[in-house]
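User: Reviewer 2 asked us to show a designed sequence for the structure in our supplementary figure. I'm pasting the structure tokens here. Could you produce the per-position amino acids so we can include them in the response letter?
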């Protein structure tokens, strides 16, 4: 970060207005008040700010706990549902990174999120791109105006035409769940005492591996019809990691990497595997779900779904070693990412599961699904969305 700012400062042209700049900075500092609040702060003059600091395209690496928020994306003009972006934009304005008059129209700052996570979903590696004024200690200033459960973990310069959504090659999500979700339906279950055996874990991974490759996932979302080309999605990796104990529960983490995901797709992918492992559905339903017929697929709870990281392999190959821009791999921020998950994301998932029992309640509904239905009736949304469905930014996290 220091190198980035040093380079920019060397490019700035020194001119006669240094005295006026110094005076302006002093006025802003005094306006903060004794307690550091900004209620009395003078509005930043955009022209003056442009003279003092260059405006550059950057990416911000974000981590947040989504509990209590109505997703990532802002609903400008609707204050009823608070989002992560509401908090971010406010912090950007208060820290002096963007002009206040652009807060309601972030397109003027070329703002773009990489993935649109939905209600209650967390992220450990969300990335947004935008133009900002490159202030000293910019990350610290933004974090100083954010709640502790939302953090900027890193910032890097990118090319002027960089778009975090369009430049993203793939996204990796994780889904943390209590392992008693995999107990057979005939198993006498004591949730807190259940332990996942290796044989069952192997079966889970065999089923998850079937998702790899390109399949028609129209049955895994309500947005696509069976003949909609955009319902075909490419899954690169999907597996369940060995279980671990935390907060009195045995948990396991399922990770999935794909080019992009439709709304509810990941939750339904996991929900179907759980239904098969528990003995409610035959394993043959996996392949049948990719056909044109409508298949009844249960949707696992949203709690536990986390956007782990986004991938920019093509961008890194082209610009990562050009001497002007950084590679977007975030290796140096890995420790911060893991620390944030342990302090904010995992405890929230565990506490909510213990208090609300979302997984246990959902498991009780699996028996009402009709897994043997062989109806040839096409999806009711087929005619509405075929050929006109829109991307959901890769976010599967309602």
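Assistant: Here is a per-position design you can include in the supplement:
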């Amino acid at each position: 970060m220091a190198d980035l700012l040093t380079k920019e400062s060397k490019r700035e042209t020194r001119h006669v207005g240094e005295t006026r700049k110094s005076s302006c900075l002093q006025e802003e500092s005094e306006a903060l008040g004794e307690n550091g609040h900004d209620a009395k702060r003078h509005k930043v003059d955009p022209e003056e700010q442009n003279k003092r600091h260059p405006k550059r395209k950057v990416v911000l690496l974000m981590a947040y706990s989504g509990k209590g928020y109505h997703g990532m994306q802002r609903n400008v003009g609707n204050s009823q549902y608070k989002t992560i972006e509401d908090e971010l934009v406010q912090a950007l304005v208060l820290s002096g990174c963007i002009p206040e008059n652009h807060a309601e129209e972030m397109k003027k700052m070329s703002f773009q999120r990489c993935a649109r996570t939905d209600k209650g979903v967390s992220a450990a590696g969300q990335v947004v791109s935008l133009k900002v004024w490159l202030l000293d200690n910019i990350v610290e200033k933004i974090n100083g105006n954010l709640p502790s459960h939302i953090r900027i973990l890193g910032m890097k310069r990118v090319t002027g035409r960089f778009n975090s959504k369009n430049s993203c090659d793939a996204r990796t999500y994780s889904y943390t769940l209590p392992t008693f979700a995999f107990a057979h339906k005939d198993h006498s279950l004591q949730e807190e005492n259940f332990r996942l055996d290796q044989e069952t874990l192997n079966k889970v991974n065999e089923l998850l591996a079937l998702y790899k490759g390109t399949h028609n996932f129209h049955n895994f979302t309500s947005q696509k019809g069976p003949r909609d080309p955009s319902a075909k999605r490419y899954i690169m990796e999907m597996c369940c990691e060995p279980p671990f104990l935390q907060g009195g529960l045995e948990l396991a983490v399922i990770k999935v990497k794909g080019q992009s995901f439709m709304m509810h797709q990941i939750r339904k992918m996991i929900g179907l595997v759980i239904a098969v492992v528990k003995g409610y559905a035959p394993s043959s339903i996996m392949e049948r779900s990719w056909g044109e017929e409508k298949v009844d697929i249960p949707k696992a709870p949203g709690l536990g779904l986390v956007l782990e990281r986004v991938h920019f392999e093509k961008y890194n190959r082209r610009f990562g070693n050009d001497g002007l821009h950084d590679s977007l791999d975030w290796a140096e921020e890995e420790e911060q990412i893991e620390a944030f998950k342990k302090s904010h994301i995992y405890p929230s998932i565990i506490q909510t599961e213990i208090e609300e029992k979302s997984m246990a309640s959902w498991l009780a509904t699996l028996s009402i699904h009709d897994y043997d239905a062989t109806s040839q009736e096409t999806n009711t949304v087929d005619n509405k969305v075929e050929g006109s469905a829109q991307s959901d930014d890769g976010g599967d996290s309602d």
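For the response letter, you might also mention the following. Residues 2-157 form a domain with the Alpha-Beta Plaits fold (CATH 3.30.70.580). The chain has two domains: 2-157, 170-298+365-385.
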